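Researcher: Re-running this chain for the archive, since the previous output was lost when a drive failed. Same request as before.
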Amino acid sequence: GDYLVSGSTDCKIFLWRAEAGREAAFYPWFEHLRTLATCEGWVNSIHYTTTHNVGNLGAIYAADSTGAVIRFKPTLAEGQARGECRFLDIDMVNKEGKTVSSSTPPLQFCRLMSGRGLSHVFYLAELDYVLTVAFDNKLRIYDNDTKRVVACLENPHECPFTDVTYDRTHHQVFLVDKYGFLFVYDIQKEKSILIHRILTEPLLSITFIRHSDEIAIALKGRVTWWKIVRDTSYQAVSEGHSGPVICVQFSAQSRKDASGSDPLKYVYSASLDNTVRMWDAYDMVCLRTLEEHRSDLASMRFCEAHNVLVTGHDDGTVRLWNLDTSSTINMRKHENTVSCILTAVLKRGEEFVLTGGFDGRVGIWDVRKKSNARPHLVTMFEAHANSEVLCILHDPHKNTIVTAGNDTVIKVWSAGTYELVGQHTGHTEAVMCLTLDANFLFSGSEDTTIRVWDALSKATVSGPAGHRRKKTVIKTLVGHTRPVTGLDMLEETGHLLSCSLDGTLKVWNYTMGACLLQFEHAMEFRCLAYRADHNEALVGTSDDSILVFKLPDESRQVSRATSATQPAPLWDLAAQLAMIAEQDGKQGKRRSIKREASRKLPTLRELEQQLSNKGAVKDDPNIPKYIPNAFARA
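Model: Regenerated structure tokens:
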């Protein structure tokens, strides 16, 4: 604290010493002691730190506008012990690490080959690393011994970083820029763990406050404090897209890797920044970026059977991206935005692409590229007249296509004849998403509810005057406060997964109508995909990020434990049957529950017989008490 090092636009670095006898003054007074060096350019940054180990006096690093970094090593004055030191000798260290006399011109520690100036230099004494921030928009990390670059981070927003600070406890580097973005680079993981726009105005300076685990950020005319929240329930993948993520999909391809051991696993995402990205599902590193220049992206789907990425666009175009050759094929039949895309095996074991658009129509596409035929439209039919198709689903067991949109009606079509065979009504706002679990259809809507429908029911399409249509809704799940944007099933547990613009991800036991688990985030959730092999939920947000939520393994363990003893799944099945029976009871009707071959459900008599053979199960306090009465109603 007795010495001060300064640099200026006069290209000189001065050493100052506090004047003795002024300890009681209102402000310290320093006298010029020595000129350490004269640089080739303006001195933009100086940093000093030490490991605080015995005998270690640290080092001083200075960066100038020509891209050069100079290192000075303090040493104890002759005959002085460190505890009683009042004067420091400063020696320059050249690029070979050898000490040279302070009377000779200083040599650089490093210099940027591009010649771009440096704005900041930061010495990490514990790791023996040197950080530099340059006007070429890059952060570089140097090994202090080898003088080599061990890591480099480029600002994707094409502007220089305005400041840098360091958290020595977690080995994380914090940076800010003029567009209001905060960057966090983890040195141990060797990658960025956060790129987040925290404000819309320029961030001028940042300081890490170690004792409170906070950061202070200076803006024009004010300073803001931010609390760092660690050990969150999700991983943010933010180094990639620069716009809202509207589609995300996990794919475990059937093709093997080069060693022939495991299937290739990727995550695909599409964004309003007009890019589609392919990520390594293991560590979520971006492997490939496809850029669209003709029309805005609106939807995306990966067709695994043909290794083709299909995208839908605002101008009605359906584009096929061949990931092997990087070639594209454009097909345009929709008259407006292609809002949703689905792949489905419709006939002869061949996979087709289904698209829905704002023109209210559904298209069936053959995307195979054969010697005698190019990818083409098989057929197109009007699904929602004077309305927009927002989501589409294929039921392989009944060979039907389910569509929904902003007319609030869910329609069921024959996948063979494309004729309307039924519809479900009940939502009061647009239906945003659909998913299926055997004979239960789920829909998420802008009215903030999730509805469970009886997919077996043949809802009346038309009938004589005064005919009352049969209600097919079984249960309504209420919990979200804004539109529901994504639905998926946890196949191993039978739970429902949902996300919403309210920034929540929920896990539901839909048979009981209860929310079992909830994750919250500050951003809006735009899309959802479930990764079964890691029990993770992938969520696309409105701020260009993909969030990876690790779901608790307890639900899996419970599911495996109960499957061995069999009674619990029977009771879960009974609860599902009770839902249908309860709905029929409200309508004052009696009907039989048909056995569905795809699910291999037992009849009620077979179910009762299996339950009667498990006498101990009847006394299980975990079994819902209302279920036996449901059998009587059914």
